[in-house]
């Protein structure tokens, strides 16, 4: 959003006058504050009459005869500045009144209350620390256009306290998750974001090129295969919270760059991962909501364990009447689903049809936390198969408020089976499935050195935060979401 030129020109002229009169405010380094705004309010009885120093952004300025008032906002809140001619002098008071909303300044003075009971700093001096050359959005209307809010997030954060609180709450939630994993003996690692072979999920990657090495690299779609290499190397409880990238559409529930939590535990299985995921969801809910109950889209949700469990194929059969265990070919599945409301299914595989049936007829009803279990082997290339039913795996996904929140399984550690699965994925890629896994020879080599039986889980941090705060769009919990270029609008 470009402001009219005259606003900026007026402020530039003021800046030049200040530079000539008292030096360049941008040359000043730091400011020694004694308290933040919230502390002055909370400890007023103790601090009244003391000399304090505060700093922040000027959010309001009111001239009143031989005095003036300003609202100074910092990260904790705001406090009123009381500027009197008797204290500052006539010239200095006039210079304060010439400041602009948005300027950054520090002030030192006596903590007191005005006759109206407003906690204030009666300033004996003030210092301009940074000149705002563009005005802020209008106080009462702010940034109402979501496109502008996300594109100029810095303005949104200045004028919208709720936006700041959303991002602060997300940060507290992530800190709580890290603490909970640390208390359970997990170590955090940073695995490569640029990878020669991507893997760990079915997704299209972003592709780049390293000039010095003359090699194609991919932005990671998941940290899974590298975290498993750490298990092979001897670590037994590992995790990572960090960015992942998938070259897919952008909507209210998807952003090409997002934050994933993945954790792996040696000598554990999917039951252990269910317990871990339940515990982490409770930790996140307590950090965000103060307890295990919250409202999402007018539904009251309680994440107190244990979560309900349903088998994937049973849930689809009960909802649609279609039994996917009865089909031997993709064509058989397409014929059985022909009467369902699934859109164009002419080229869909067995697995794609199963996903569509679940998404359309089952997922919308999964409001209370539910583990959907036993996913087919053909759609789960990294999960361990059930010995008694090798066509199914020890895999589950977590749904809360009809949102997919996590994916986990007993990890496949058989290198021979893993090679067969990768080869099947490679065949699917040759047939046109752009999201199928590539064959990662180095990972198979690592597996051939022996990986202990293990459980692994992944959760989308952004989506969990969006769910717990009952927000309609993932962009609300991402500080700087990806947006279309201005010239494409």
Question: What would your notes on this structure say?
Answer:
By secondary structure, the protein is α+β, with helices and mostly antiparallel strands. The protein has 2 domains: 5-136, OB fold (Dihydrolipoamide Acetyltransferase, E2P), CATH 2.40.50.140; 158-307 and 368-483, Bira Bifunctional Protein, Domain 2 (BirA Bifunctional Protein, domain 2). The chain has helices spanning 5-22, 37-42, 44-47, 85-88, 90-97, 146-151, 153-159, 161-183, 224-233, 270-289, 312-320, 330-336, 350-361, 415-430, 441-448, 461-468; strands at residues 51-64, 67-74, 77-84, 104-113, 119-130, 187-188, 194-195, 207-210, 215-219, 237-245, 257-266, 293-296, 299-302, 308-311, 370-373, 385-386, 389-393, 395-400, 403-410, 454-460. An 8-stranded mixed beta sheet has the order 6-10-11-20-19-18-15-14, with helices on both faces. The longest helix is centred in the middle third of the chain and has 23 residues, at 161-183. The chain is elongated, with a radius of gyration of 29 Å. The protein starts with a helix and ends in a 21-residue tail after the last helix. The model has no long low-confidence stretch (mean pLDDT 94).
Defining key terms:
489 residues; OB fold (Dihydrolipoamide Acetyltransferase, E2P); BirA Bifunctional Protein, domain 2; 8-stranded mixed sheet; 5-stranded mixed β-barrel; 16 helices
């Amino acid at each position: 959003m470009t402001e009219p030129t005259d606003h900026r020109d007026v402020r530039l002229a003021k800046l030049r006058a200040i530079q000539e009169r008292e030096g360049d405010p941008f040359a000043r380094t730091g400011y020694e504050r004694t308290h933040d705004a919230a502390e002055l309010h909370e400890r007023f009885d103790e601090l009244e009459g003391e000399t304090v120093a505060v700093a922040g952004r000027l959010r309001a300025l009111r001239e009143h005869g031989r005095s003036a008032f300003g609202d100074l906002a910092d990260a904790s809140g705001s406090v009123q500045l009381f500027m009197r001619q008797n204290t500052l002098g006539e010239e200095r008071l006039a210079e304060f009144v010439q400041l602009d909303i948005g300027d950054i300044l520090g002030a030192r003075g006596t903590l007191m209350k005005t006759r109206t009971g407003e906690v204030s700093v009666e300033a004996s001096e003030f210092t301009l620390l940074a000149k705002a050359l563009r005005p802020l959005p209008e106080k009462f209307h702010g940034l109402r256009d979501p496109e502008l809010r996300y594109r100029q997030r810095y303005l949104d954060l200045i004028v919208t306290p709720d936006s700041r609180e959303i991002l602060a709450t997300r940060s507290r939630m992530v800190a709580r998750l890290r603490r909970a994993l640390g208390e359970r003996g997990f170590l955090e690692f940073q695995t490569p974001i640029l990878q020669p072979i991507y893997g760990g999920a079915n997704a299209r990657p972003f592709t780049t090129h390293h000039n010095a090495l003359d090699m194609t690299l991919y932005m990671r779609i998941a940290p899974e295969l590298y975290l498993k290499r750490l298990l092979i190397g001897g670590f037994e409880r590992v995790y990572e919270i960090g960015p992942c990238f998938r070259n897919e559409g952008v909507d209210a529930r998807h952003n090409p760059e997002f934050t994933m939590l993945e954790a792996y535990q040696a000598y554990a299985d999917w039951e252990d991962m269910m317990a871990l995921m339940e515990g982490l969801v409770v930790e996140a809910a307590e950090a965000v909501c103060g307890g295990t109950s919250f409202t999402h889209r007018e539904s009251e949700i309680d994440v107190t364990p244990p979560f309900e469990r349903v088998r994937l194929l049973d849930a689809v059969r009960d909802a649609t009447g279609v039994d996917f265990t009865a089909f031997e070919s993709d064509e058989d599945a397409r014929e059985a689903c022909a009467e369902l409301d699934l859109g164009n299914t002419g080229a869909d595989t067995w697995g794609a049809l199963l996903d569509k049936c679940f998404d359309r007829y089952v997922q919308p009803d999964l409001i209370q936390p539910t583990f959907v279990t036993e996913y087919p082997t053909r759609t789960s290339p990294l999960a361990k198969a059930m010995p008694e039913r090798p066509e199914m795996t020890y895999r589950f996904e977590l749904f809360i408020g009809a949102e997919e929140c996590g994916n986990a399984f007993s990890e496949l550690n058989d290198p021979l089976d893993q090679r067969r699965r990768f080869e099947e994925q490679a065949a699917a890629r040759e047939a046109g499935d752009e999201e199928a896994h590539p064959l990662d020879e180095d990972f198979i080599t690592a597996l051939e050195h022996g990986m202990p039986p293990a459980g692994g889980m992944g959760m989308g941090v952004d989506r969990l935060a969006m769910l717990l705060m009952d927000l309609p769009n993932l962009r609300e919990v991402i500080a700087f979401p990806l947006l279309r270029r201005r010239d494409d609008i």
